[in-house]
Amino acid sequence: xxxxxxxxxLKERNPTASEKEQAQVTPMPNPGDIKIExxxxxxxxxxISGPKTAxxxxxxxKYEERCTACCQTIADTFQELLEALGQLARLDLAVKEKCxxxxxxxxxxxxxxxxxxxHVPTTNMxxxxxxxxxxxW
Length: 137
Description:
The protein is mainly alpha-helical. It has a domain at about 65-120. About 60% of the residues lie in helices and about 0% in strands. It has five helices and no strands. Helix 3 packs antiparallel against helix 4. The termini are far apart.
């Protein structure tokens, strides 16, 4: 291929700057009036999520049975604790007092904890507003 043919091929491949401008400036035919419709959407203040229907009775029954079983276990264990404290009272009063104080602190904790359950998670981020998970539903 000669230089003349090479120059000709380059000119055919790469159009000049004036040809590029003409290609970019060519107006497109007007297809008619263009109509733009705008839709207004209002945002809700709080995101609402959760089940749309009431909770199933089977779930409630399942957890009610679990709570009943746990209460029965606690009652049985408490009875065992009382029997152990009675035996310690005959054997060693100092150890009985120590165990009695520990059991008393545990019982106080067990009384106070369900009052604030389920707890609200906290965060150190100022932009995040914490909420209790049970308040969403």
